[in-house]
Design goal:
three-stranded antiparallel β-sheet; 158 residues; homodimer
Chain lengths: 158, 158
Amino acid sequence: MVQLNEVRAGERTVALPAHTDAGIYFIGTIRTPWTDRRAAPRQGCTDGPPCRIEVAPPWDQGLDGIARFARLEVLYWLHRSRRDLVLQSPRDDGAVRGTFALRSPARPNPIGSAIVELVTVEGPVLVVRGLDCLDGTPLVDLKPDRSLFRPPAREGGA
Amino acid sequence: MVQLNEVRAGERTVALPAHTDAGIYFIGTIRTPWTDRRAAPRQGCTDGPPCRIEVAPPWDQGLDGIARFARLEVLYWLHRSRRDLVLQSPRDDGAVRGTFALRSPARPNPIGSAIVELVTVEGPVLVVRGLDCLDGTPLVDLKPDRSLFRPPAREGGA
């Protein structure tokens, strides 16, 4: 059985710094169908189930105008992940890679990011598709998808 | 002249919580040509100038295998931004929108994200294109671009 958060063969940990450098406010909570990391998908998919992003006061005031965006970028805190792994073997198959060459939840700053489709806005709650995180995951940020802000490609450009 | 970090007409601030909920380690420093926010581009572009991402020890050990990825997602801490705005008027033109309907650097958790092209890896330094942040911006995370991990589109799918 796959164990969570153990250190596997070939993996390498480092001592965490004594102090952090900046602080995060949890601004809401993400509700998904997944309560166990072993059941959650490895990568969100926009044909996945609808999930709820509950934005807490006073931050819900910042949702004004969000309904006009079809896609959002969501940042969240992977609150059950260890932070001290620099080399990882996610599949426990002997293949070891650096943490920054992986999208594993175990990372020095365990911030997950997803691009989701916005289905509907119900007051302070967004219904979206495309998440892969656990139920109860703390919300860190919401932004319009960057591609919606990009200038059109130049004519004759690459 | 555009002032930085003032509160403009129509904007709304909230009282920040007394405590943060989680801590961030700065894992490196981003070097760009921009030392003034008024000169930095509003959105990074992969035909922009090369920038350097300097990953600090011990985290540089996590770069193993990163050179195989053409595109990376970069998270960074927008260290000069105010965090208490929920309604903003970025162009000071009377148009006010919620913070989460904007990619403005002023947000409760001022984490910027960019997709960059990896030009080369020089030990603990990545040379990339596509950033828009200020010189000296603290690095928070690096991940392979999510689209490189997506399964291919299903045949006959949408």
